[in-house]
Amino acid sequence: MNAHKHKNENETMPAIEVTDLTVAYREKPVLWDVDFQAPQRQLLAIVGPNGAGKSTLIKSILGILKPAAGRVLVMGKGYRPQSRYIGYVPQRGSVDWDFPTNVLDVVLMGRYGHLGWFRRPSKEDRSFAMECLEKVGMADFTNRQISQLSGGQQQRVFIARAFIQDAPIYLMDEPFAGVDATTEKSIIALLRELKTKGKTVVCVHHDLQTLKEYFDYVMLLNVRRVALGPVKDVLTQDNLRRAYGGRAAFLAGDKDEDGTQNSKEASSVES
Amino acid sequence: MDIGYLIEFFSNYTVRVVMCGAMILGITAGTLGSFALLRKQSLLGDAISHASLPGVCLAFLLTQSKSPLVLLLGAGISGWIGTLVISLVTENSRIKKDTALGIVLSVFFGFGLVLLTIVQKLPTATKAGLDKFLFGNAATLLREDVWTMGILSGIIFILLLAYWKEFKLIVFDKDYAKSMGLNVVFLDLLLNTLIVIAIVIGLQTVGVILMSAMLVAPAAAARQWTDRLGIMVVLSSLFGAISGVAGSITSSLMLKLPTGPTIVVYLSMFVIISLLFAPHRGMLWDVLRSYRHKKQLQRTTVLKNLLLFSEISTDPYHAHDVAALTAIGRGPLQKTMIGLSKKGYVRQSVPNKWALTEKGLNAAQKLTKEIEEQVNVITSD
For a designed S-S bond to B353, which of A180, B170, B235, B319 qualifies (C-beta 3.0 to 4.6 A apart)? Predict the structure, then answer.
């Protein structure tokens, strides 16, 4: 990372910049006038209650959903999926794992955007896929039929498929959902490694307890943007209550010294 | 049936034409059926083929021509409009996909039947024979028809090879395909169009009512035997081709046997055999596996219980009453005991009194230790 002076602007501009994004489903707003900036080379979590529009935000950035209004800039430019700036890890449950294919084949799907018609993945693509599988600890499962994988293994295959896209930015939709503690730790280690390589990682996350430990930045979202910034600044009782409603303090629990008292009060009120 | 008759039979013009036609149909429908099945759109084929009937009739009414090319073009357009209506309805209303399929299927088919009746009452069209599109009649295939079928499936295969990985990706993970910038709307439409063409190819032979079986049945059978998409497609087209050829020859040999239903009978045999006997996914193997598992579970339970008893008494090889074992065990105990004694784990000293052998004691101790270790692993994490 040698930052040249004339590159300063490139270095400081947000990896992803979303302005006034509004997404509606049958007149019901899912995202309402959301502004969002993901700083480069950071781990950022999008956090919020169910139905807050977290996945919708990610899908709108990727161009999977068409927003009613708003603008998405990726590395300062209007985003087209063809530009290969973003690697995507969808929710594990979004596909049918009984599809007739094996692990290596799923990972190679990450190269399809780079190949033209009639073209099959090359030898280099295959060895790159093996590298990615090794990184996520799935090298022994190369030829395994995907229906025989456990939840954590499926998640790691999807992460390997995003790695092979070789993108500067990664968007991950609940990469920790339904994986065991060991897998969660190995996934977070991978994300940190991506960060040290200068990549930007944005994750939809659910667990407020691990937020401080895993991520640098966080956006609290509940249809509207509640707060965005470094985890320490954002994770206040006030913000959490605004995002989650009354139960927030109970959820945030034992985070900071003066918060502890509050949360105990709040949880006792709740229960 | 002697060899001479067979040679004569297969050199017969009609039989050769019918065989070629049915083979092309089976291969094409089986291939595209695999994609339809994996997209969970097995019923789409049914809706499209039924929706093509009004097209056949309208094409005849408008042109007064019985040329297959004209009629099939009408079928294709009408079937394609059917798919369009299905996606428009599901995307723009609260009506779910299965309902939309049902609506399109019955409305279009009903309209088609009305038109068919009108056509048959026309004085000029008494011999129109459009009703063969209901159940299909392979014997009426001409060489030109087979050429048309061949060219259409050639186009299908070129497009399928060109977009193989794109199709695979949109079937497996559509959102991911979109995120990489693949034109999913176009690819979806293309795949649907190919399915429409495959159905149109089969209308003369199999008919609108059973055409969807040509798509779904071979694919469902093929899925049972393999876990690779490529192999599934090849197997599916093979099953389709064999059934198509066998069915259309059978119906050509026996007068008045409609081709569509005959082919479907052959297809059903492939499906039944595959559902029952395919390794891994076949039902027979499921039954065998669960029987073996149950037997093993019963045996290990008895061994562990005998060990439990022997730990109470001083002599580990002390014989215990079978009733005591039944009281704390499960299942048909006598059979389990005999099974265990055949393997040398237990022996019967006096009738209904069973004791562990040395081999059985070791096995039981090992089993108990394994379970303890597993529990430790689970609780320590």
Answer: B319
* Residues B93 and B203 placed together within one structural domain of the fold: yes
CATH number at residue B321: 1.10.10.10
Please indicate, yes or no, if residue A253 is contained in any of the structural domains.
Answer: yes
User: Contacts of residue B187 in chain A, CB cutoff 8 Å?
Assistant: none
B296 in the same domain as B182:
no
Pick from A82, A101, A181: which is nearest to B229 by CB? A101
Instruction: Convert the pLDDT of each residue in A26-77 to its tens digit.
Output: 778 889 999 999 888 989 999 988 888 999 999 999 988 888 899 888 888 8
Q: Which residue's entry shows tokens 């779910």?
A: B96
| Number of structural domains chain B divides into | 2
A85 in helix, strand or coil? coil
Q: What is the pLDDT along chain B (381 residues), one digit of tens a residue?
A: 567 777 777 777 878 888 899 999 999 999 999 999 999 888 899 999 999 999 999 999 998 888 888 888 999 999 999 999 998 998 888 899 889 999 999 999 999 999 998 888 887 755 567 888 888 888 888 888 899 899 999 999 999 999 999 999 999 999 999 998 888 999 999 999 999 999 999 998 899 999 999 999 999 999 999 999 999 999 999 999 999 999 988 888 877 788 889 999 999 999 999 999 998 888 898 899 888 888 888 888 888 888 877 777 777 787 777 777 777 766 557 778 888 888 888 888 778 788 888 888 888 888 888 877 777 766 654
Mutate to test the interface with A, among B35, B173, B190, B377 (most CBs of A within 10 A): B173
Q: What residues contact residue B35 under an 8 Å CB cut-off, 6+ apart?
A: B167, B171, B191, B195
Whether the CB of B168 is below 8 Å from some CB of chain A: the reply is: yes
Using left for φ > 0, alpha for ψ between -120 and 50, and beta otherwise, residue B255 falls in beta
Residues 37-96 in B contacting A (C-alpha not used; CB under 8 Å): 38, 40
Residues of A in contact with B38 (CB under 8 A): 96, 99-100
Encoded tokens for B308: 């439990």
CATH of the domain at B109: 1.10.3470.10
Q: What is the domain extent for residue B260? A: 3-280
The reply to whether B228 touches chain A by the CB within 8 Å rule is yes
In angstroms, the CA B66 to CA B64 distance is: 7
Residues B90 and B13 in one domain: yes
ipTM of the assembly?
0.86
Chain A touched by B181 (CB under 8 Å):
yes
Residues B56 and B137 in one domain: yes
User: Do residues A254 and A260 lie in contact, with contact meaning Cβ atoms separated by under 8 Å?
Assistant: yes
Instruction: Classify residue A247: in a domain, yes or no.
Output: yes
Q: What is the pTM of this model?
A: 0.83
Q: Are B190 and B126 in contact (CB under 8 A)?
A: no
- Domain termination residue (choose one: B256, B280, B304): B280
Q: Which of B263, B279, B276, B275 is nearest to B220 (CA)?
A: B275
CB A55 within 8 A of CB A91: yes
C-beta atoms of A106 and B182 within 8 A: no
The verdict on residue B380 lying in a domain is: no
Q: Do B129 and B233 belong to one domain?
A: yes
* Count of the separate structural domains present in chain A: 1
Task: Tell me whether B232 touches chain A (CB under 8 Å).
Answer: yes
In a domain, A153, yes or no: no
**Selected residue of B176, B225, B231, B379 to mutate for chain A interface (largest A Cβ count, 10 A):** B176
Q: Of B264, B280, B296, which marks where a domain is finished? A: B280
Are B108 and B206 in a shared domain? yes
Bigger pLDDT: A200 vs B324:
A200
How many CB atoms within 10 Å of residue B323?
9
